[in-house]
């Protein structure tokens, strides 16, 4: 089973990896897991498919947790 890396995922990984604010956050041990979790929650909320109602609920909950708790 071969898995190819798409250009889109490479571009997103490069933009996140080269972002100076994200790289600065990685230098602090206590901040980096929370910053990575907030980016993961935001991006995953955009890619969750299925029903429209479940998408909006998941999107709002993940944005709420990103802003308030992370």
Topology:
Blueprint: H1 7-18, H2 20-26, H3 32-47, H4 52-68
Helix pairs in contact: 3-4
In brief, what are we looking at here?
The protein is mostly helical. The chain has helices at residues 7-18, 20-26, 32-47, 52-68.
Tell me what you see in this structure.
By secondary structure, this protein is mostly helical. The protein has a domain at 28-70. Helix content is 74%, strand content 0%. The protein has four helices and no strands. The protein has helices at residues 7-18, 20-26, 32-47, 52-68. Helix 3 (32-47) packs antiparallel against helix 4 (52-68). The longest helix has 17 residues, at 52-68. The N and C termini lie far apart (37 Å). The model has no long low-confidence stretch (mean pLDDT 70). Keywords: Membrane, Transmembrane, Transmembrane helix. This is Glucosyltransferase domain-containing protein. The chain crosses the membrane at residues 6-23.
Oligomeric state, counting identical vs distinct chains: single chain
Give average pLDDT, whole number: 70
Strand content: under 5%
Radius of gyration: 14 Å
Annotation keywords:
70 residues, Glucosyltransferase domain-containing protein, 74% helix, 4 helices, flat, mainly alpha
């Amino acid at each position: 089973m071969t898995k190819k890396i798409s250009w889109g995922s490479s571009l997103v990984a490069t933009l996140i990896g080269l972002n100076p604010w994200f790289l600065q956050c990685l230098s602090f041990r206590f901040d980096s897991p929370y910053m990575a979790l907030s980016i993961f929650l935001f991006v995953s909320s955009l890619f969750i498919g299925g029903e429209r109602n479940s998408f909006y609920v998941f999107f709002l909950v993940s944005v709420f947790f990103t802003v308030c708790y992370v």
